[in-house]
Specification:
The protein has 14 helices and 20 strands. The two termini are 27 Å apart. It has two domains: 187 residues, Leucine Aminopeptidase, subunit E, domain 1 (3-Layer(aba) Sandwich), CATH 3.40.220; 305 residues, Zn peptidases (Aminopeptidase). The protein is elongated and about 80 Å long. It has 501 residues and is of the alpha/beta class.
Length: 501
């Protein structure tokens, strides 16, 4: 897809469809009245009928007249000054979703003056809109379906972003950045969405190998015996019941000892449970098919290091993806088994369905031993986070506070929402064990907080945990995205890493 940024008058742009954000208030942009005049006043008529009154995601498609565009689509976005980064990012996706099934090859999006809340500059507008459009063009749930072309968004040959009275040269870089981040998000979505009989731990290792070869990254892949020899007792405990052997995956950009401009070696750690039956502590049958999504954290960090390598080749960074399949079997870990973690702590596994924290604990320790100075782990870890925050906000933990603030600020710049949960030390007593240093689970009360407390046992450096169990997957379509994997947190990780350029 070609991306253009222009300051041409919107009616002069030669395109199939010209898209206009419609606000609930009157825009100060003097181009819009002229556009409406050329359309015979149809936008004003639609507003008067409350058919196109600026309410978010209400839209109308009309024939273009006296202009270069064959068609014009108006898309409501709310009040102009209240359009935050979440809304701006969704605008691009909503436009592509509105055009599902239509024969559109070229789309132009006009960004009128006054659009966007205070603090969003023109470059930010362009990057977010382009990223949203690229993500909106994907339908990850259609991977295995044939003959669905008429149900898919158009695969654009050209996307034009138009703004008036501005120098477009620096905005072209922002548009390119938005396109590359959006493509990376879609890569994470496709990989996460693939079925468990299609993606085993070996397949995740193959994906990492392809990324390593493309960008000349250092690759580490450990099998169960190698991981056990290193002392990864928690990681090796989880995959014992499966015929698909576990794979501990590490990718690294930059030389040993090298750090970024902020003195960091950031490690992105992603939970890679390619299918989670719960093991011996087996899950209910209802919605167990969704447990193919339990690898989303690993898919996210693999896609993120690929995106970062495209945008900032050679930037020192790590991606760590412990990949397992959690199945019941004759060799499965049993409730009550005791294992020793890589950092030497002893854990009683009283719930084999609390497996994600086990593999992440060893992965965090391993990342620190490889020189990581700052860590972010991404995981579909608990059902509790979805019950608490729903599907629009990712919950998380972090210490020290400055590092959490930095991570959440990176997310805010990319229009991704995070909510910090407290680490209540007195809950740690509920995790005590008769036989080990602590248990991996201790009941429903405060379970979300206890998941964070467990992971904290395996870090000694600045660390943030992002629980994407609620936000990683949509069960129904939205105006801006197809149902299925969302790719959440990919853009945050990329934004965070690029701060070290």
């Amino acid at each position: 897809m070609r991306i253009r940024v222009t300051n041409d008058r919107p009616w002069d742009i030669d395109t199939d469809v010209l898209a206009l954000p419609i606000t609930t208030d009157v825009s100060p942009d003097d181009s819009l009245p002229e556009l409406d005049r050329r359309l015979g006043g149809v936008l004003a008529d639609y507003r008067a009928m409350r058919e196109l009154d600026g309410k978010a995601w209400r839209s109308a498609l009309v024939r273009g007249t006296e202009m270069g565009a064959d068609w014009v689509i108006g898309m409501g976005v709310g009040a102009a000054g209240d359009c935050g980064r979440v809304t701006i990012g969704r605008l691009g996706g909503a436009l592509l979703r509105r055009l599902v099934g239509l024969p559109v090859n070229r789309l132009a999006i006009y960004l009128p003056a006054g659009l966007g809340e205070e603090g969003i500059d023109r470059a930010g507008l362009v990057e977010l809109v382009v990223r949203g459009a690229v993500e909106g063009s994907a339908d990850p749930y259609a991977i295995y379906r044939e003959g669905v072309e008429g149900d898919l968004p158009p695969q654009l040959e050209e996307l034009t972003i138009a703004l008036r009275d501005t120098d477009t040269s620096p905005l072209e870089t922002a548009a390119e950045r938005g396109m590359i981040i959006g493509q990376g998000t879609n890569r994470a979505r496709r990989l996460a969405q693939r079925a468990s009989n299609d993606v085993s731990p070996d397949v995740l290792a193959d994906e990492a190998s392809a990324i390593a070869q493309e960008h000349r990254l250092e690759l580490t892949v450990l099998g169960p015996e190698e991981a056990a020899a290193l002392g990864m007792g928690m990681f090796t405990a989880v995959g014992r019941g499966s015929d698909n052997p576990s794979r501990f995956i590490g990718l690294r950009s930059g030389k040993t000892g090298q750090t970024d401009s902020q003195g960091r070696l950031l490690a992105m750690v992603g939970k890679g449970v390619t299918f989670d039956s719960g093991g011996i502590s087996i899950k209910p049958a209802d919605r167990m098919e969704e447990m193919k999504m339990d690898k989303t954290g690993a898919c996210t960090v693999l896609a993120a290091i690929d995106t970062i390598a495209r945008l900032a080749p050679g930037l020192p960074i790590m991606a760590v993806a412990p990949a397992v399949e959690n199945m019941p079997g004759p060799h499965s870990t049993r409730p009550g088994d005791v294992v020793r973690a890589l950092n030497g702590k002893v854990v009683e596994v009283n719930n084999t369905d609390a497996e994600g924290r086990l593999i992440l604990g060893d992965a965090l320790t391993w990342a620190e031993r490889q020189g990581a100075t700052h860590l972010v782990d991404v995981a579909t870890l608990t059902g509790a986070v979805e019950r608490a925050l729903g599907k629009a906000v990712t919950g998380g933990f972090g210490a020290p506070q400055e590092w959490w603030d930095e991570v959440s600020a990176a997310g805010a710049r990319q229009g991704e929402r995070y909510w910090q949960m407290p680490l209540i030390d007195e809950y740690r007593a509920d995790m005590e064990s008769w036989y080990a240093d602590f248990q991996n689970s201790s009941g429903a009360e405060g379970s979300l907080v206890k998941s964070g407390l467990f992971l904290r046992e395996f870090v000694t450096r600045p660390w943030v945990h992002l629980d994407i169990a609620g936000t990683a997957y949509l069960r129904k379509n939205t105006p801006w995205a197809a149902r299925g994997a969302t790719g959440v947190s990919h853009a945050t990780l990329v934004e965070l890493a690029l701060a070290g350029m």
